[in-house]
């Protein structure tokens, strides 16, 4: 598929920065979810996974931030999806914070992240350079691997 040629390079750059910032926001959200989840358990195995997931999102944010700054933009520092962690806290207090409940509560953040990355890779390709597409694809693969790990842990708990 051939990329569109933009008459106004500034318009394309602004759109590219918005897309990359959206991915930063998703990763900020993931970090908040896993910090919330880690407060709800003393299980060393789960804590290990949550710390790993946080580190992956922090690395994604750093990579995206570097690209945003290279384009002359400013990187957002927060997430608009703050209510989910509050909902997660309440849900875990009501349903209990057993392993399966805790892991299932984390799945929404994973699914939302995967959907967002997929959308960018399918619908916003024209705004991203080949290097940016490679970066986003690589991050998507890491987040998808996290998702598969989380699903595997849930499936093991059901047995």
Can you give a write-up of this model?
This protein is mostly helical. It has a single domain, classed as Up-down Bundle (Ferritin), CATH 1.20.1260. The protein has five helices and no strands. The chain has helices at residues 9-39, 44-70, 83-95, 99-123, 130-158. The longest helix has 31 residues, at 9-39. The protein is elongated, with a radius of gyration of 17 Å. The N and C termini lie far apart (45 Å). The relative contact order is 0.16. The model has no long low-confidence stretch (mean pLDDT 83).
In short:
The chain contains five helices and no strands.
User: C-alpha Rg, in Å?
Assistant: 17 Å
Helix content: over 70%
The CATH class designation is Mainly Alpha
Order of helices and strands: HHHHH
Low-confidence stretches: none
Number of structural domains: 1
Determine the structural class based on helices, strands and strand pairing: mainly alpha
The best one-word shape is elongated
The N- and C-terminal alpha carbons lie at a distance of 45 Å
User: Main beta sheet, described?
Assistant: none
Report the CATH architecture: Up-down Bundle
Percentage of β-strand residues: under 5%
**What's the name of the CATH homologous superfamily?**
Ferritin, core subunit, four-helix bundle
Number of helices: 5
Mean pLDDT over the full residue set:
83
Number of strands: 0
């Amino acid at each position: 598929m051939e990329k569109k040629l933009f008459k106004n390079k500034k318009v394309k750059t602004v759109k590219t920065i918005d897309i990359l910032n959206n991915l930063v926001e998703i990763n900020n959200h993931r970090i908040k979810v896993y910090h919330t989840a880690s407060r709800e358990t003393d299980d060393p195995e789960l804590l290990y996974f949550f710390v790993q997931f946080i580190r992956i999102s922090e690395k994604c944010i750093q990579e995206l931030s570097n690209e945003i700054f290279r384009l002359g933009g400013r990187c957002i520092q927060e997430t608009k999806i703050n209510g989910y962690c509050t909902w997660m806290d309440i849900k875990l207090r009501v349903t209990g914070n057993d392993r399966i409940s805790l892991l299932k509560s984390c799945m929404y953040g994973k699914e939302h992240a995967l959907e967002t990355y997929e959308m960018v890779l399918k619908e916003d390709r024209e705004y991203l350079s080949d290097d940016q597409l490679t970066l986003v694809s690589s991050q998507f693969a890491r987040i998808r691997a996290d998702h598969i790990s989380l699903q595997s842990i849930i499936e093991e708990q059901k047995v």
